[in-house]
């Protein structure tokens, strides 16, 4: 419901540049994941959108209207932004229904309407029959649903998530991801989701902002950051794969070792060495392929992950239904590669 414009945002904490020159446009109704390793600045950016932190430089605007820059700051309660925290932040002495009703009571909404709206959002998060329970009678996943319901009931135009699933086990996470996706589709609110888990980001978001060291490395659809990472950092952070050294000839043909590899690239490259990102799904054993030595064969359930060594000492990763002998030689065909742009 709201477009968020972030322009050249900067923030320092002493010597640390938590954010440096970050610009982003989050379209109305979009779902953006802020993704990056610990300390990359994603929480600082989220806190600035919420209004808990002020920038040193740059500006944030909602639908074109400035909410903060280096001279002014609209307080959090006036921004119509809801936040779902990792720690749930529920009132322990209130029932689920009263926790959810809280923002409506604070705004003097009539009782009958409160009852109706609370029931509506509890149904939306799958807790229609839990209104009378207290938070300590709920599982972690259910508590997080209550926190989300409380955000949804308040008619916020933007919903921010700060690593909301970090305390939950793998199965609950998968369930919550499905629920959050469904709710995003139904409510069409602008959502921003902080995570350091790339699988979560790819599954949930329609846009992923990859950050490192306070800088924005890439902003694009999950498919783009996976298939065409902007640099080696993004390539290493998103998905599995390996960066291997190839060589490009005058005709533009790229070879890794002795085999020709079909590659995609952002810009035309001159002849010479290139760094090629190869995803495991592009690699298959083949009679006349690149010769490698199996270094490690690891059982992963659905398949065996094979790490193999190229002649030049580089590593390549691929999956196999059956395990391979460590130390053995195999030949590989590579169906696709991405030439990683230089930093
Ligand atoms: N209030 C603060 N005072 C001092 N330094 C801070 C403060 N808040 C953040 N920082 C520093 O700014 C940098 C960015 O922090 P931020 O919390 O935004 O990163 P993050 O990517 O969210 O990390 P995490 O996933 O660990 O929460 C870090 O180096 C952090 O130590």
TrEMBL record:
Gene3D superfamilies per the UniProt record, alphabetical: P-loop containing nucleotide triphosphate hydrolases
Question: In which family does this protein belong, per the annotation?
Answer: Belongs to the ABC transporter superfamily.
Stretches assigned to the ABC transporter domain: 4-238
InterPro entries for the chain: AAA+_ATPase (IPR003593), ABC_SmlMolc_Importer (IPR050093), ABC_transporter-like_ATP-bd (IPR003439), ABC_transporter-like_CS (IPR017871), Mo/tungstate-bd_C_term_dom (IPR008995), P-loop_NTPase (IPR027417), Transp-assoc_OB_typ2 (IPR013611)
Keyword Transport part of the UniProt annotation: yes
This protein's UniProt keywords: ATP-binding, Nucleotide-binding, Transport
Protein name (record): Iron(III) transport system ATP-binding protein
Name the Gene Ontology molecular function terms of this record: ATP binding
A Pfam family per the record: ABC_tran
Q: Which domain of life is it from?
A: Bacteria
């Amino acid at each position: 419901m709201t477009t968020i414009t972030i322009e050249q945002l900067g923030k320092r904490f002493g010597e640390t540049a938590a954010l440096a020159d970050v610009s982003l446009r989050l379209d109305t109704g979009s779902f953006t994941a802020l993704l990056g390793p610990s300390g990359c600045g994603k929480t600082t950016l989220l806190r600035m959108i919420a209004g808990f932190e002020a920038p040193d430089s740059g500006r944030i605007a909602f639908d074109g209207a400035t909410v903060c820059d280096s001279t002014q700051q609209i307080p959090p309660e006036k921004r119509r932004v809801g936040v779902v925290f990792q720690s749930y932040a529920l009132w322990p002495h209130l029932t689920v229904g009263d926790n959810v009703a809280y923002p409506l009571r604070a705004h003097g909404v009539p009782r009958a309407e409160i009852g109706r709206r609370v029931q509506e959002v509890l149904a939306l998060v799958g807790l229609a029959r839990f209104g009378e329970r207290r938070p300590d009678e709920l599982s972690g996943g259910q508590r997080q649903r209550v926190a989300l319901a409380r955000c949804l009931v308040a008619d916020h135009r933007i919903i921010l998530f700060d690593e909301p699933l970090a305390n939950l086990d793998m199965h609950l996470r998968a369930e919550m991801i499905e629920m959050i996706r469904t709710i995003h589709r139904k409510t069409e609110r602008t959502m921003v989701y902080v995570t350091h888990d790339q699988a979560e980001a790819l599954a949930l978001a329609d846009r992923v902002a990859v950050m490192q060291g306070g800088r924005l490395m890439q902003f694009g659809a999950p498919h783009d950051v996976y298939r065409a990472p902007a640099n080696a950092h993004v390539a290493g952070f998103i998905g599995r794969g390996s960066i291997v050294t190839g060589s490009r000839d005058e005709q533009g043909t790229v070879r890794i070792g002795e085999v020709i590899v079909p590659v995609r690239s952002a810009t035309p490259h001159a002849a010479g060495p290139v760094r090629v990102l190869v995803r495991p799904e592009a690699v298959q054993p083949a009679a006349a392929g690149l010769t490698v030595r199996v270094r490690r064969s690891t059982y992963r359930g659905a398949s065996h992950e094979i790490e193999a060594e190229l002649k030049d000492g580089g590593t390549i990763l691929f999956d196999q239904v059956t395990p391979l002998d460590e130390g053995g030689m195999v030949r590989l065909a590579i169906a696709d590669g991405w030439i990683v742009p230089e930093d």
